[in-house]
Amino acid sequence: MSDDVGSALPAAAAALSAEDRASLVNALKDRLEFLAGQHVDILDTLSSQVRKRVEVLRDLQSAHDELEAKFLEEKALLAAKYQKLYEPLYTKRYEIVTGVTEVEGITNEAIKDKEDKDTEEKGVPEFWLTVMNSNELLAEEITEHDEGALKYLKDIKCCLVDKPMGFKLEFYFDTNPYFKNSVLTKTYLLIDDLDGPFLDKAEGTEIEWYPGKCLTQKTTNKKPSNGSKNANPTTKTKISESFFKFFDPPQIPEEYDDLHDDDVSL
């Protein structure tokens, strides 16, 4: 680095955002580790005083890495602790939504009056479909023909995954005419660091569709044209837009530089 560049660096760094400065520090740290670990011959060209300073900097980085590992471990334990505290709330929600238990304030007389007028509705019908349609991002993924299947959705759970780190979404369905599965899952495996977790890969359940009920594919039969040698109709299958493609995520490229926006899926 020339003297001109070195003198300009502090002023340039001051103009950067906090996020940019963090990226710059990480880049410099990686460069230092690269030089120290891979090019010992470069260190040999330094004076003994400078080499000693670099060795101390390397020791400081090792101490930092130990603290970072401890921080990530304690963060995982804290997340697991609160996951257990959430469970009773989720259980109570499921029981109310599905009609397993009744909430206070609804008396037997009120239920009887309701029965006199029409058929009693248990719980909260189509609760999860309504919730999902109320979410801006999810609503964009749900098509009209998905709603018939999503009306059978009775619960959604999220649980943490260890080794490798991640979390799993579980979608519980009543018996329905669309697919055999009672539970559909989507698992996200993550890599964590101080800048926050980032996605390593995602895995989903293979849906066992009943014949003619697949919502992610559309099959059409085309009659042969007049004069065609092949008298049999041709069958074509094409991908259909559907929320249920959520459970068939694309593979994350090994090189993140190869990742395009079209490859990203929830």
UniProtKB/TrEMBL annotation:
InterPro entries, alphabetized: NAP-like_sf (IPR037231), NAP_family (IPR002164)
Pfam families from the UniProt entry: NAP (PF00956)
Classification via Gene3D superfamilies: 1.20.5.1500, Nucleosome assembly protein (3.30.1120.90)
GO cellular component annotations of the record: cytoplasm; nucleus
Entry keyword set: Chaperone, Cytoplasm, Nucleus
Cellular compartments annotated: Cytoplasm; Nucleus
Top-level taxon of the source organism: Eukaryota
GO biological process: double-strand break repair via homologous recombination; nucleosome assembly
MF GO annotations: histone binding
SUPFAM superfamilies assigned to the protein according to its UniProt record, in alphabetical order: NAP-like
Family from the record: Belongs to the nucleosome assembly protein (NAP) family.
PANTHER family attached to this UniProt entry: TESTIS-SPECIFIC Y-ENCODED PROTEIN
The protein's name: Nucleosome assembly protein 14
UniProt organism field: Senna tora
Source lineage: Eukaryota, Viridiplantae, Streptophyta, Embryophyta, Tracheophyta
